[in-house]
Design a protein that fits this description.
The protein is 72% helix and 0% strand. It has 17 helices and no strands. α5 (68-80) runs antiparallel to α6 (84-98).
């Protein structure tokens, strides 16, 4: 039986992880799990620990572990800490020796994509055997490639055999946010339910709700969701980044600058900052061509 299926004993902790409820994952009682599910559950706990900002602690706790699952977690933790060379080297070795391992596929795929090696990431993830997280990651990569058609095909195929899956709902909502139109509203319903239900709410789901509100043009509602997210987690970089976008759209220049500074302090290499710097440089180059010439 698939431990993450509706009948599987890891469904609750798996859903909690993908809803961004990382503390709930860390608190999950694994004492009664069957032997085959002990490692997958521990991997989820380690990933939640890394997501909570304790990659060093996660590395320390598995320093003597040699199984491929834990080697993949080590690589992911190393990448999270900025040791990209060691992380990618580890992943390359795991791809050679353990590419059929589900944890290697997922975490190796994340590291490779983050390192800009998209084709290698897709090649590794495509080895999955019905793994919904692999499907969600493939979908996300296709969206980053601006291949909405491929992303839509991926989630449509998964929907046929995993109708009630939370991950499929989330991935389908990502695609809906790119497709637009009525799909904005459908995506909003998914994220709002996650964010406003006490058993599933988290900073991550609140940010997702806020983003869907932004796409629908509901700026005050997006602001309320982001404010709640930032109250829960003032240093959450995705909440801060989207607060920058919201402040820009609302014309709140002082708040925009405040959130930009917070983002620079929290994560100087965040994609939003990198993109802003790139666009600013391109603008300066273009403006320079039209500068007034003084005789």
């Amino acid at each position: 039986m698939d431990p993450f299926s509706a009948e599987g004993e890891l469904l609750t902790v798996h859903n909690a992880f993908h809803q961004g409820q990382y503390q709930a994952v860390l608190d999950f009682d694994t004492s009664s799990l069957s032997e085959s599910n002990v490692i997958p559950a521990r991997v989820l706990k380690l990933r939640a620990q890394i997501a909570n900002g304790d990659a060093k602690g996660a590395l320390l706790s598995i320093r003597r572990e040699g199984a491929p699952d834990f080697a993949a977690v080590k690589a992911f933790a190393q990448y999270s800490l900025g040791d990209t060379s060691a992380a990618t080297n580890q992943v390359e070795q795991l791809v050679e020796s353990s590419s059929e391992n589900a944890t290697v596929q997922i975490l190796g795929g994340i590291v490779l994509q983050a390192d800009g090696r998209t084709e290698e990431a897709l090649s590794l993830l495509s080895k999955h055997q019905g793994n919904l997280e692999a499907i969600a990651l493939i979908t996300q990569i296709h969206l980053q490639q601006n291949r909405t058609d491929l992303a839509l095909r991926e989630v449509s195929a998964a929907r046929k055999w995993a109708q009630d899956s939370l991950l499929v709902n989330i991935a389908e909502s990502w695609v809906g946010m790119r497709v637009g139109g009525e799909s904005y509203q459908s995506a909003f319903y998914v994220f709002e339910e996650m964010a406003q239900t006490p058993s599933s709410t988290s900073t991550k789901s609140l940010v997702s709700q806020a983003i869907s509100e932004l796409h629908l043009g509901r700026l005050p509602e997006a602001e309320a969701a982001l404010n709640q997210a930032l109250q829960n987690a003032p240093k959450d970089v995705e909440a801060i980044a989207n607060a920058v976008v919201l402040a820009t759209l609302m014309g709140k220049t002082s708040e925009q600058q405040q959130h930009l500074e917070e983002l620079r302090n929290a994560r100087p290499d965040h994609a939003l900052l990198t993109d802003l710097e790139e666009k600013g440089s391109l603008f300066d180059q273009a403006a320079g061509r039209y500068a007034a010439k003084v005789a």
